[in-house]
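Sequence, please.
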């Protein structure tokens, strides 16, 4: 268990020591001991490193991300995607990999200035890429989105996307559009995806979601009216499910599952779950 994981401001990459992760388009490098390697050893392996980012600390030791231009083969190691790790590792490890994934995605998508096209440069001690020509700063992107559980007494509204694993249903979700609040996004997305109206919105918590860089804002809403009409190409099926007869649900550490489990616990008088940080 990585109980000593702590996110900190970016470190100066001129310092030595600590641990390192290696990331490429194929995921993260791992061996029989996990995903953390001694930083200095990893840097001696002649990997195609294009950038190095400070992430945080593990038991007081700094952790770095080595971003590679392409995957490289190391004896006894393999590459694995974040979604696979999500099902295998403990929550602190997933949080560390989640941050690394988002930082790596930000760097790969902002190598050049979006205003003048000049190659950006990393700013020391800050999660920022700066254009040396026009001075435009590009910070790590966070995309706010809402996720909501709509309820009607002992029934909850669940839907499935064509992208879900076979048989799984989940809550409704969508990205916040420019100019709207999170609450307005809830009402709009529910109306668009399943054709019903909601009321009495309650904010319940948030969760960082690294696919690719979302901040999920979790809500509960009560059904206010309308018949379910799934949105073509977005929703494969949707319906009302009794809390004691639920279909296969999302993984336990997701905010979608938390919203469902919390409502079921409250209706049945059970201990309430805790949202993973």
């Amino acid at each position: 268990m990585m109980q000593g994981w702590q996110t900190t401001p970016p470190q100066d990459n001129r310092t030595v020591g600590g641990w390192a992760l290696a990331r490429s388009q194929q995921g993260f490098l791992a061996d029989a001991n996990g995903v953390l390697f001694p930083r200095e050893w990893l840097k001696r392996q002649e990997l195609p490193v294009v950038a190095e980012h400070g992430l945080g600390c593990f038991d007081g030791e700094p952790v770095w991300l080595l971003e590679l231009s392409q995957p490289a083969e190391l004896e006894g190691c393999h590459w694995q995607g974040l979604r696979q790790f999500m099902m295998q590792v403990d929550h602190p490890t997933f949080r560390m990999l989640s941050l690394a994934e988002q930082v790596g995605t930000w760097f790969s998508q902002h190598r050049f200035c979006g205003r003048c096209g000049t190659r950006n440069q990393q700013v020391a001690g800050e999660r920022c890429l700066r254009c040396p020509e026009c001075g435009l700063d590009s910070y790590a992107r966070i995309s706010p989105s809402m996720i909501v559980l709509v309820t009607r007494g002992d029934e909850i509204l669940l839907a499935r996307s064509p992208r879900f694993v076979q048989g799984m249903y989940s809550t409704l979700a969508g990205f916040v559009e420019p100019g709207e609040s999170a609450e307005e996004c809830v009402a709009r997305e529910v109306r668009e995806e399943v054709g019903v109206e909601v009321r009495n919105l309650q904010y319940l918590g948030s969760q960082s979601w690294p696919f690719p860089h979302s901040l999920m804002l979790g809500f509960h809403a009560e059904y206010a009216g309308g018949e379910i009409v799934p949105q073509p190409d977005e929703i494969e099926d949707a319906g009302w499910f009794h809390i004691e007869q639920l279909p296969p649900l999302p993984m336990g550490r997701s905010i979608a599952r938390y919203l469902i489990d919390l409502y079921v616990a409250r209706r049945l008088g059970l201990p309430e779950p805790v949202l993973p940080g």
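The chain has a mean pLDDT of 93.
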